[in-house]
Amino acid sequence: MAKKQVFGADALQAKMAAKRMAKVIISTKNENGKYSYREAMVEQDNVKDFIQKNKA
What we know:
Layout: H1 9-17, E1 21-29, E2 35-43, H2 47-53
Antiparallel strand pairs: 1-2
């Protein structure tokens, strides 16, 4: 069964209110020379700031 889709002003308001998220993967090098990866879900507007803060 298909999900009913809503059109119009109500649907547009709901879409604008929803947060747009992005998955960011940060890599770090361990003491033994191998890389480990960490995933984080960040709001789409804050991706550049998050990457700058987590750079080694």
